Amino acid sequence: MVISAETRARIDLEIAKYPKQRGALLPALHLVQEELGHISPDTAREVAEIFGVSPVEVMEVVTFYNMFYDRPQGRHHVYVCTNLPCSIRGARGLLRALEKHLGIGPGETTADGRITLGHEECLGACAYAPMMRIGGKYHEDLDLEEAKRIVDALR
Amino acid sequence: MLKVPYVTNYLSEHFAEDAYATLEGYERRGGYEAARKAITKLTPDQVVDVVKASGLQGRGGAGFPTGLKWSFMPKGADKPRYLACNADESEPGSFKDRILMERAPHKLLEGILIAAWATQSQTTFIYCRGEYAFPGAQIARAIEEAYAKGYLGKRVMGSKFSHDVVLMMGAGAYIAGEETGLLESLEGKMAKPRKKPPFPAEYGAFGMPTTVNNVETFCHVPHIIGSGAEWFKGFGTEKSPGTTIFGVSGHVVRPGLYELPLGTRLDEIVFEHAGGLSAGRKVKGVIPGGMSMPILPAGQLDVPMANEFLRERKSMLGTGGIIVMDDTTCMVRVGWIVTYFFRDESCGQCTQCREGTGWMHKIFERIERGAGSRDDLEILLDVAAKMDGQTICAFADAAAWPVQGLLRHFREDFEAHVAHGKCPFPQSFEL
Lengths: 155, 431
Hints:
The structure holds two protein chains of two kinds. By secondary structure, chain A is α+β, with helices and mostly antiparallel strands. Chain A has seven helices and four strands, in the order ααααβααβββα. Chain A has a four-stranded mixed sheet with strand order 2-1-3-4, covered by helices on one side. Chain A starts with a helix and ends with a helix. In chain B, 57% of the residues are buried. The longest helix of chain B has 26 residues, at 395-420. Chain B is globular, with a radius of gyration of 22 Å. By secondary structure, chain B is α/β, with parallel strands linked by helices. Chain B folds into three domains: 18-233, 3-Layer(aba) Sandwich (Rossmann fold); 243-326, Ubiquitin-like (UB roll), CATH 3.10.20; 331-420, Up-down Bundle (de novo design (two linked rop proteins)). Chain B has a five-stranded mixed sheet with strand order 6-5-9-7-8, sandwiched between helices. In chain B, strands 3-2-1-4 form a four-stranded parallel sheet, sandwiched between helices. In chain B, helix 5 packs across helix 6 (105-119), helix 14 packs antiparallel against helix 15 and helix 14 (351-369) packs parallel to helix 16 (395-420). At the A-B interface, helix 2, helix 4, helix 5 and helix 6 of A face strand 3, strand 5, strand 9 and helix 13 of B.
C-alpha cells in the first residue's frame, strides 16, 4: 500500500459528496498526488481498486489532465504562461532566460531535483503579464530580476 | 496589487472591500436579500420568468439566453436535478471569473441558490479549474460560511427547500470548459465532450437533468431578482442587456478589467478606458472576445461590443476578453501561438480537430520560418473550413475561426513571409 490511511480517509470524504463514487476520482487523484508527488502505475492500481475501475481508466485520466504527473517531478513546479496575452508582453523571453538561469532545457528538472520549469497555457492572468504559477501561487507583473529572485528563493 | 476592475458597475462596485468576500461583509451590502426574496416570495416559475424577461444571455462565450436554458429543465420530482457552475475559465484573454470568485464568492453562491430554486435542483457542482487555487479557496470558504448560516443544506433560509453545493477542482484541461466535457470531468473521466442530443437538461451530470451556467452569468442573477428585469434592461443594448466585465490585455497602457454595458464601443474600451497604446504605437488588430473569436483590424474598432454588432464583422463577443496588438506584431506569430494552443488542447476524439489543429500549426511554423509557399494559405483555409462545424463540439470551430480571421484581415503578413523567405517583423514579440 502506498496511499496512507489518512489520505484514504480524505478520499472517502470526497466520495461521499458525489451521487456516483467515480465523481470523486479527480479529487482523489489530487489528494494522492499531494501525498506522493506523482501517480505511478502502482499508485494508479490502488486508486483503481478504491473506485472499482480498471487501472488503465485511472491512467487515462492521469495522462489526460496537465496537472497530474505519471512520473517524479521536481519539488517545485514553476510554470510560465506563454499564451498570447502573456507572449505579447514578453513571457517567452522570460521563460528562456529562466531556463538559462537554472541551466535546464524546456520542461526539465534541475539536477538537484529542486525545480521543474515549464510553460502552461492561459492561466487567467492576462492583464498581469508576464506571470508564473508555482504550485497554487501566482506571481504576476514579473520582470526577469523579480522572477529569478523568486525561483532562487525556492528550497 | 489589488485586482479589481478599473471601471465598476453593479457587479463589481464593492470589489475593493476585502470584507465583501465574507458572508458578513456581503450581507452588509444587501447580499442574499434577492435569494431570500426568490425562495420566500416567488415561485420557481416566476423566477424563471423574471430572468427570461431580463434577456440575460450567458457570459461564458456562447451567449445563450439564460432563462430559456433554465426552462428546459424537466419538471416533476421523479429524479434529481443538478446545476453545474462552469468555473473552468481558460479562454485565453479571459480572467473575469477568477476575479469574481476572488472578490465576491457569495455573489456567485447567491446566484446559484436562486437558479437552484428556479430549476428545483438539489445539488450544484462548481467545477473550478485546478490552477485557480486561490479563487477555489475563496469559494470553499464561502460555501462553509453559507452552510453555517443555513443558506445551504437542509431547509435553506428556513424554507422547505434544500440545496447542496459541491466544489470540484479540475486538473488542467481547456476542453473541460466545454459544457459536456465539464460533465464528463465531473464524473471522473477524461473531459471528452459528448454528442448532443441528448442535451444536458435531459441527460447531464451523472445522467440526471442538469443546467450548466458560467460564473459571471450566475453573478448577474441576484441583481436581476433584486432590482427587476426592467432595471436590468436599462443597461446594454436592446438585444444584449446588462453589463459585462471586459478583460483587456496585450499592448495597452492600462490592462485590466472594466465592467461596462454591453454595446460599449471597442475603441472606447481600448483608448479611453485602457489608456490606448504606448507613445508612437498604433493598433494593428484586436481580438474582441477571447482567443477563439476572430480578430478585427484597426479600422473596425468602432464596433459596439455586443453579438448583434460583432457578428456583422464576422466575430463574436465570446467571453469579452479583449487582446490588443500593436503595429510591431507579426500576425503569423499570433497564428502560431493560437494553433499551438488548440493543437495542445484538442481532446483528440474527432479526426478533423485532432489532425487539423496539428496541420495548421505545422503550416504556421513553416511560414514563420520562411519556408512557406503561397499554396499554404489556401491549405490553411481548406483545413479550417473542414474543421468548422464538422465535429462533436465547438472546439474545432473555435480553432478554425481565429485562423480564418487572421487570413481575412492580415493576408499581406503571410504573403510577406513567403515572399521574403523570413519573418519581416523583427520588432514583433518573441516566439
